[in-house]
């Protein structure tokens, strides 16, 4: 059991999951808090929150939004269950213990997978260089131009979900922290074991917004309402990405549920760790989706584009990316700002990183058939 660090400001409602209200889609224009329907393993999957079918405005046309976040458009979704928290180290450890699964970061990388991430013509490295490992945020000791992330990220041999910062680091005592250093493949393997699935990008944003129509953040428009910090983001004590010896170990994940939930009772939809979602990444996905839509301006259960392409980076289908959402403890006003509800980004599905995790979803039909 995870320790609930804060009491919800909304009431727990005991609802029969097989009732008609959940079995059939009744679309609502949901704005504001919902009564919390939390699965307990009998009435709904353990630790998951029910979000009823509804409509919302996805994306943003705000001046702070990036081009890949627009245009804002109406989306209609069927109801679904969503994890209340990100998947934790303890959760992932149970999966590993039962399946003996070996994560991407724990395997020797294949040149076929690696070369599509590198400039054309890059020579194959010596076999001694091709070792298991993952990307770790290492920071800098002084301010640097923010146009080259290789200055603050490094491939660290031996870094994996058990050793997020490399050999010598550990998750001991961090059982309730979100698991990191997991690739998309790892997240999908866990989902199969748990009889769940990754969220679509639309499902993720619907959940993150918590019924606040076009609000900037998952909790409203004020980043620190009444001076209260609402998410685990860059601490701003020093400019990003400066860590320095005295501040280095203060930067990282925190236990899930360390901050207030949003109005849907969901924790850490902003900050702490990025979250994998199912959609292929395209910078122009929303524009393309609206053009292909045949039922007017409302997109029904969108699942994203059929392939990945990022015209901003020139990344073609031979180097596909998947969408990640939510931002992380590294997001800063001066650099990332991806803790905003509409912010989106692509990531190589083979990548494992020290600020990237996931949470999962489940349809009610799947729950009813497999309970």
TrEMBL record:
Residues 46-361 form the Sulfatase-modifying factor enzyme-like domain. GO terms for molecular function: formylglycine-generating oxidase activity. It comes from the Bacteria. This is Formylglycine-generating enzyme, required for sulfatase activity, contains SUMF1/FGE domain. The lineage of its organism: Bacteria, Pseudomonadati, Pseudomonadota, Gammaproteobacteria, Pseudomonadales.
